[in-house]
Amino acid sequence: MIKRRTLLGAAAASPLLSLPAFGQSAGSSVLKYVPASNLTILDPVFTPAAVSVTHGYCVFDTLYGVDADQNPQPQMAEGHSVSDDGLEWRITLRDGLKFHDGEPVRAQDCAASLARWAKLDPFGQALGAATESFGHADDKTIVIKLTRPFGPVLDAIGKPHSRPAFMMPERLATTDPQTQITEMVGSGPFRFVADEYVSGDRVVYEKFADYIPREGEAEWTSGGKQVNFDRLEWQIIPDDATAIAAIQAGEVDWLGAVLTDLQPVIEASPDVNLHRTDPYGIMHVVRFNHLIPPFDNVELRRAVLKAVDQVPFLQSVAANPDDREECLALFPCGTPGVEQVGEGIMGSLDVEAAKQAVMDAGYNNEPVVILNPTDISSIHPHGLLIADLLEKIGFNVDLVDTDWGTVVQRRVSKETVENGGWNLAATNWPAISINNPATNATTRGLGESGWWGWYEDAEMEQLVVDWLAAEDPDTAAKLYLDIQNRAIDQVPTLPLGLSYRSGAVRADLQGALQGSVDMFWNIRRG
Amino acid sequence: MTGYILRRILATVPVVAFVMLFVFSLLYITPGDPAAILAGDQATQAEIEAIRTDLGLDRSFPVRFLEWSGGVFRGDFGTSIFTQLPVSTMILQRVEPTLSLMIVTMIIAITVAVPLGVLAAWKHGSLLDRAIMLFAVLGFSVPVFVIGYVLAWTLALQLGLLPVQGYTPFAEGPWPWLRSLLLPSFTLATFYIAIIARITRATMLETLQQDYIRTARGKGASDFAVLFIHALRNASVPIVTVIGIGITLVISGAVVIESVFALPGLGRLIVDSILRRDYPVIQAVILLFSFVYVIINLLIDLSYTVIDPRIRY
């Protein structure tokens, strides 16, 4: 102890050690950002990971963006026209668009980008299924020929999250969809500096001098993307407490996420402000495996749904009441068109009644395997809570605590539990990525070709097809409500409510936008 | 001596070969599918299968092992499943921070611990001796990440003397480099100071009882000469052994320290790679670590013959 004090004293006395922290010396034209997780996959169409989407918006641009109300707005597009029969869409590009390698952005590049995206993204796949071709009339005009009416064309190609339709040069966009693109050449507001990229440590971007922002205010992924920094540096800091200390010390400017437990530290700091980027939040769910007993039985799923009280689930991931919201629906509350159709159905809290319902539904005391990743703080408590709930209402629970890597492998097993299968697993989705019938994998009834859990429901799929084809808003709205009701009736997934995550921004920065991910235009120092 | 060195070097070959087979087998049977992780939450079974095929994960164990080991002998460790970067590039990017951490930590540990151990032995039973041993017990007992947070809070946040996190390459200047390493190295060194100081004290106590020490004192040698010239050299074999083992242990300590202080080293690389089942990276880093262990053990053995000429092979 004596020696440590001596050491600290010596350190404090040293004039050399009193120099300012080196992290502060980079200059005001550098914006330093700490993403919530490491950027490992650069291709933002290959993966739906939020960090790759964030990176994608730096490097790439989209034909259409969305405003705060999720309405599509032209971004790279000047505008569009639709044929009288609704089967041919022509999208015109703005003048002067360039890729980072100096080549002009052509309609051919965009058509190839749309074609690749339509093979990977669920909304894109729905559009692709109704599309004869993604082509071009000339260098500035993209032509989408449909085989049947498809109402939300612009919603699909302007979707803001989980594989947005980013535009790439044709030579990259023709890459096999199952192969990652690693050459980062886009037409977005920042140029990726490949030489300085060290996965797990840092990602560097430079302002793209030839980027031409749209006119108007920036809002979500639309409007004028004005970049006010010459350089954007991402630094990966795996330890949350260290990241907090780094922003307090002024070594970084912006944290993508602050753990709920650490938010009071930021609130007490005069130099740093909390910033909630995504006002729609994260939707927490528990997925049933529909292929094997007992949850191939809809009555059992309904019995569990009836017993679920979302409050403890939400409290376990969001300490502050402002950071959580009950949502009695399988679509994210707060997004356009969503209603709490589960009111009066969910959350009875009547354990005895639920026990009786489970027995009445014909439960045979089969073991119920719950996959629970202990290394994901936003999911782990939900595994524990659902196990506790199921035990209380009479299920024979086998809670499998393991790591995320094992969970994602076992989750795709279609075997019985004796042979390595599973019955329940919790996860979460950015609300904005499941805010319509086409993209909401938790409710789609595609069976074995769909999302893990393999819920099959022909009636649901027909409703989705009808919704996609609906050309007038009233019909679409009615169909959307029917889909919501169908979902809460069939319970393909248990909804656990919404939580909201905040990041942190240094107080001398102004103009941080809202969106489904952090965006680096509009923000400025001072 | 030359024959001994050659024999020892040749003995490392089967060790490394066994490690290669063991590591590859272990990862082959470990649950966790990189294709499923790579595909993400929305992926369908067909997409995962397509990625698995694309990555060659559907091929048999012997085929994959032969391909990998053949690549290793050619100096090709493959490509990261996730980043699509050559594994050798990823390792080269990470070697410098870990090596720097290792060097600075051990320099701090040795320069602090050996004099402390000698001092404790010299003042055996005194208040100073007990204080040094108390420090050693604390160094053992308190987890490094706790020490790390305390030092970061004190030296970086409250006093603003050192950066909280991050690494500055040596190429950007020795002082910025050292500055970025002081906090993590001090933190990690506390454990090694404790262990080296205790061993130094114990072996010095034993050595100080020897006849030749009494003779040296009788001939009028100063305390400094007795302690550091006569006794310390003869007490050095166990101390060097502990230091050598300590260097290898720094690698495991680096896993925690690199995460706490955001150093982009091999420790973080292997943790990240294990979590996402990036097999080629895991295999290469473990192989590298094994090689380092083998080399350090070899150097320890060789150092014995230099320190104590009575040791002959």
TrEMBL record, chain A:
<dbReference type="GO" id="GO:0043190">
    <property type="term" value="C:ATP-binding cassette (ABC) transporter complex"/>
</dbReference>
<dbReference type="Pfam" id="PF00496">
    <property type="entry name" value="SBP_bac_5"/>
</dbReference>
<dbReference type="InterPro" id="IPR030678">
    <property type="entry name" value="Peptide/Ni-bd"/>
</dbReference>
<protein>
    <submittedName>
        <fullName>ABC transporter substrate-binding protein</fullName>
    </submittedName>
</protein>
<keyword id="KW-0732">Signal</keyword>
<dbReference type="InterPro" id="IPR023765">
    <property type="entry name" value="SBP_5_CS"/>
</dbReference>
<dbReference type="GO" id="GO:0030288">
    <property type="term" value="C:outer membrane-bounded periplasmic space"/>
</dbReference>
<feature type="signal peptide">
    <location>
        <begin position="1"/>
        <end position="23"/>
    </location>
</feature>
<comment type="similarity">
    <text>Belongs to the bacterial solute-binding protein 5 family.</text>
</comment>
<dbReference type="InterPro" id="IPR039424">
    <property type="entry name" value="SBP_5"/>
</dbReference>
<feature type="domain" description="Solute-binding protein family 5">
    <location>
        <begin position="72"/>
        <end position="439"/>
    </location>
</feature>
<dbReference type="InterPro" id="IPR000914">
    <property type="entry name" value="SBP_5_dom"/>
</dbReference>
<dbReference type="GO" id="GO:0015833">
    <property type="term" value="P:peptide transport"/>
</dbReference>
<dbReference type="GO" id="GO:1904680">
    <property type="term" value="F:peptide transmembrane transporter activity"/>
</dbReference>
UniProtKB/TrEMBL annotation, chain B:
<feature type="domain" description="ABC transmembrane type-1">
    <location>
        <begin position="95"/>
        <end position="300"/>
    </location>
</feature>
<feature type="transmembrane region" description="Helical">
    <location>
        <begin position="9"/>
        <end position="29"/>
    </location>
</feature>
<feature type="transmembrane region" description="Helical">
    <location>
        <begin position="237"/>
        <end position="261"/>
    </location>
</feature>
<dbReference type="InterPro" id="IPR035906">
    <property type="entry name" value="MetI-like_sf"/>
</dbReference>
<dbReference type="GO" id="GO:0071916">
    <property type="term" value="F:dipeptide transmembrane transporter activity"/>
</dbReference>
<keyword id="KW-0812">Transmembrane</keyword>
<comment type="similarity">
    <text>Belongs to the binding-protein-dependent transport system permease family.</text>
</comment>
<keyword id="KW-1003">Cell membrane</keyword>
<feature type="transmembrane region" description="Helical">
    <location>
        <begin position="177"/>
        <end position="197"/>
    </location>
</feature>
<dbReference type="Pfam" id="PF19300">
    <property type="entry name" value="BPD_transp_1_N"/>
</dbReference>
<keyword id="KW-0472">Membrane</keyword>
<dbReference type="Pfam" id="PF00528">
    <property type="entry name" value="BPD_transp_1"/>
</dbReference>
<dbReference type="GO" id="GO:0005886">
    <property type="term" value="C:plasma membrane"/>
</dbReference>
<feature type="transmembrane region" description="Helical">
    <location>
        <begin position="134"/>
        <end position="157"/>
    </location>
</feature>
<dbReference type="InterPro" id="IPR000515">
    <property type="entry name" value="MetI-like"/>
</dbReference>
<feature type="transmembrane region" description="Helical">
    <location>
        <begin position="281"/>
        <end position="307"/>
    </location>
</feature>
<dbReference type="InterPro" id="IPR045621">
    <property type="entry name" value="BPD_transp_1_N"/>
</dbReference>
<keyword id="KW-1133">Transmembrane helix</keyword>
<protein>
    <submittedName>
        <fullName>Peptide ABC transporter</fullName>
    </submittedName>
</protein>
<keyword id="KW-0813">Transport</keyword>
<feature type="transmembrane region" description="Helical">
    <location>
        <begin position="99"/>
        <end position="122"/>
    </location>
</feature>
